[in-house]
Specification:
By secondary structure, the protein is an alpha/beta fold. It contains 9 helices and 13 strands. The protein starts with a helix and ends in a 6-residue tail after the last helix.
Length: 300
């Protein structure tokens, strides 16, 4: 038995919480994972995992083994990558997660640029608007809108994504241009679900002052492309991240409504599980990513 390889399987099973998920990550069959765990337990002379049809739990010896080996193997992997990268190339796998609003246009472009510099790098880029567990979902780093709630993560602030009120010129020609926030009640509003409070309000900012505005949207959506498409179609005034509509503003397809006000900005954070055991390829991408994100028009 290759003890180091068996430990890697054991660690992955613990972190993923199931042999099926670990097998998928490792590219081997579930029966192979089960066999390796049995052999490792035989080698250790003790049960490492308590298995049942519904759950899998670490035994006390299993917990001791996981605590003692998971960090050590991460250190070994990082050392190997350091040596390889010192030879002039960044290789390996990089698993990235991000929100659709930033990912489709900006994060994907940054990933492509980084991969062009390091063609031996294999990247998995997942774009979706949901909270994830970095370990369980096998993600190296994630870009998040809003500070993550998990306390066991490194959360590095990237900046804030500006939000503004915009509309199609045709819509404003037909329905008039609002003079202040009180006029918004006369307009169809299109808003993102992420900025609408439980009380049905949005927060408008003018310098240091903020105002809570009660709104009754004609469309609420969690999809940025649907939101922008509805605005372009002249269906109302909408709250949009500046980075989504910068080109539309430049071309005149959309214009600012209430240009003296902005909607409360959303903070962006880059999250990863550990700074101590951060793999060199992840560290290199973070160093490349953060300045690129901060150059995006609309991130301040």
């Amino acid at each position: 038995m290759n003890t180091v390889a068996a430990l890697r399987v054991f660690i992955r099973v613990v972190e993923r919480g199931s042999m099926t998920a670990a097998a998928r990550d490792l590219g081997i069959s579930q029966p192979a994972v089960s066999k390796i765990l049995r052999e490792l337990e035989g080698h250790m002379g003790t049960r490492l995992l308590h298995r049942s049809p519904r759950a899998m739990q670490l035994s006390e010896p299993g917990r001791l083994l996981y605590d003692a080996t998971s960090g050590a193997l991460s250190t070994i992997d990082a050392a190997i990558e350091d040596v390889r990268n010192g030879a002039g190339s960044i290789t390996g796998d990089l698993h990235i997660h991000g929100p659709v609003c930033v990912g489709e246009r900006h994060l994907s472009r940054i990933v492509f640029d980084f991969q062009s510099r390091h063609p031996q790098l294999r990247v998995s880029l997942t774009l979706e608007d949901r909270a994830i567990n970095l370990i369980e979902d096998n993600i190296d780093l994630a870009l998040c809108v809003g500070r993550p709630e998990a306390q066991n993560l490194i959360a590095r602030r990237v900046g804030a994504s500006r939000r503004i009120l915009v509309a199609a010129p045709d819509y404003l020609a037909r329905h008039g241009t609002p003079g202040n926030h009180l006029d918004l009640v006369r307009h169809g509003l299109i808003v993102s679900t992420t900025i609408l409070s439980r009380q049905g309000t949005i927060t408008l900012c003018r310098g240091p002052s903020t105002t809570e505005v009660q709104v009754h949207p004609v469309l609420t959506t969690n999809n940025p492309q649907v939101l922008v498409g509805a605005l372009e179609a002249g269906r109302g005034i909408g709250t949009a991240q500046h980075l989504l509509v910068a080109d539309h503003l430049a071309s005149g397809r959309l214009v600012r409504a209430l240009p003296q006000d902005e909607v409360e900005a959303s903070e962006l954070f880059l999250t990863y599980a550990s700074a101590k055991f951060l793999r060199p390829v992840v560290r290199a991408f973070i160093d490349f990513l953060i300045p690129e994100l901060r150059r995006i028009d609309g991130i301040v």
